[in-house]
Amino acid sequence: MVTLMASSSRSQFSSRFGFIMAAAGSAVGLGNVWGFPTQAASNGGAVFLFVYLIMVFLLAFPMLVAELTIGRYGQSNAIRSFRSAWPKGKAFAIVLGIGGLIVVSLILSFYSIVAGWLMGSFADSSLNLVGLADKSHWLTTFGTERNLVLMVIFMLLTMHVVRSGVADGIEKWSTRLMPLLFVLFGLLTVYIFTQDGSLEGLKMYLVPDFSHLTPELVVSAMGQAFFSLSLGVCVMTTYGSYLQKDTNIPKTAAQVALIDTGVAFIAGLVVLPAMFVAKHHGVQIFSDSGTLLNSDTLVFTVLPALFDTMGEMGAVVGAVFFLLMIIAALTSSISMLEVPVSCATEELKISRNKAVLLIGGVVIIASAAIVTNFNLLFGFVVNFTTVYSQPIIALLITLIVGWIWNRNQILTELKQGYPEIEKSLFWKIWPTYVRVVCPILMLLVFFA
Predict the structure, then answer these.
(1) What is the DSSP string of 354-423?
(2) pLDDT of 335-351, one tens digit each?
(3) Cβ contact 37:49 at 8 Å
(4) What are the structural domains, with CATH classification, of the chain?
(5) pLDDT at position 6 over 60
(6) What is the pTM (predicted TM-score) of this model?
(7) Could you say which of 68, 208, 333, 406 would form a disulfide bridge with 46 (CB–CB 3.0 to 4.6 Å)?
(8) Residue whose C-alpha is closest to residue 99's, from 412, 445, 392, 414
(9) Which of 77-86, 123-132, 259-268, 365-374 is most confident?
């Protein structure tokens, strides 16, 4: 049942577990299950993992606390939350909030296309299981019609969850899907480890070779840590606004970061050994120079080729893997759609159903435009949103928390869930860290 604030009718997560699953679900997406293993495989394996873990602690966690705190303090959508932290900067807060809404909607527009491909791959594996392989060719063949149909199906699924609200939609489905994701990951990891060649991949992933350590690798690991926690697109600000006041924000943020990092780590345990299992079965994964082949489409090329070599069991493993990917994509897409929906319901005073239909429809139209002009728009939208816009917005949010928002107000807000925080080591370090270190690190990511 939705818990309501006494002063307003704003929905909240009904439990801390529900919030953690929802926030972790937002953070756990294709960036973890697809992006992280690919980055690790392309950057020396264990060295990239080592640097990535450091960057999660140094950059992502402090920023996550900042965004959640702004959201819970504002108890409203991203625009109003930014205004509450900086009352004198009303115009800036509005521009920043609207910018975040546009960016997160554009990310969802290309994200839904990729998620549609995953649905096609899952359906293909499922049809192979029941002996209908000849009927599934269309599902995995790149084409405008196929991309449009699968994208619309995925967006309708996302809209259905968000339409049900915070507790009955996002929280309910996140608390179901995230445990299922962990179970599927566990089963898949155990199976892959039983296959010939997996130990070679495990060695690459866990035994560091520091000759691969370069400035470029550090920047890549920093960026991966930054993007994997949904920072800089108002998602965590919006989710923070649904938090109950007695929630310990630093502790909860640490739990979300640990789950997100844990999923990325386990994804690496699956994908890197699976690559070498594929190599053992004759699938070429590295060029003569040692460079990873098809790194951007690893999930859609190397792994299906591996599954094909496994016979009937390969179809089962493929179906489980792509179901896992769909769950990761869905838990992220519902958080992305919630950001503009929450803003529309509060700023435009329209019902949640109308907001979901309106904004979901706009995202579908934007996705359709990308699909029909794929070569021109897909890469451009990905780079514009994730490479440029997201770091800039995150940097501006950090500057608000570090330099503009009154420190006593921040302390008072955090004390509601952590009364002794003023005496803690966290409070002695975090305000200055967010003020100075986080902006410098993010500028390094951006300019690199």
Answers:
(1) HHHHHHHHHHHHHHHHHHHTHHHHHHHHHIIIIIIIHHHHHHHHHHIIIIIS-HHHHHHHHHTT-TTGGG
(2) 899 999 999 999 899 99
(3) no
(4) 16-447 (1.20.1740.10)
(5) no
(6) 0.85
(7) 208
(8) 392
(9) 365-374
